[in-house]
Amino acid sequence: MTQSTIIRLEDLSKVYGEGETQVRALSEINLTIEQGEYCAIMGASGSGKSTLMNMIGCLDRPTSGHYYLDGMDVAQLGDRDLAHIRNLKLGFVFQQFHLLPQLTALENVMLPMVYANVAADERQQRALSALKRVGLGHRLSNRPNQLSGGQQQRVAIARAIVNRPVVLLADEPTGALDSHTTQEVMDIFGELNASGITVIIVTHEVDVARCTRRVVWFRDGEIVHSHLSPLELGTVAVP
Fold it and tell me: Which domains does the chain have, with CATH numbers?
């Protein structure tokens, strides 16, 4: 299958504040990610990696430059259009699971489809399929406080993929998990990527990055390595 570009950033910058308090979080970033890639974004705290994730996730707008998502320049779209794109093209997984405590696993996964105007009967069918995909077909009626941390993250992943996104974004998705559960979650990300979903993970954990196939390394708002092999982590000098 021929790859196509799913994300293209052109001279993308993000500046906060003005004058002496100005902070340049991203400085003229140029980055291309192809459909079906599996990438890790790494760098020290304050390097710009989380700001980049916010840009890619249409959670914030750049100060200047262009961001093409699936061929559309989304950099300057209004809030309503950005929300629509987030719901239909992007899936999000965070370190804290952000599940609604009063809802069951099935209901939590169904929720994004409400905003996407998916018919009620299809919502349940797709949510059930997504939970089975992450190995939780037997936990449909459990609420978050009846699930382990790893199971809650699986529910969050099912919720992220239920609208069939073109890109799955994960921000420190294993930060609250032990090493065994981390590997289980990373296995799920690997399976989703193998099915064709583009997966981008922000992480500070080398073991997590080594599960991916490409590492983008940030320093001071700039990319210092755009195509680092995960196998090279620890063997090359990364600032």
Answer: 5-98+157-232 (3.40.50.300)
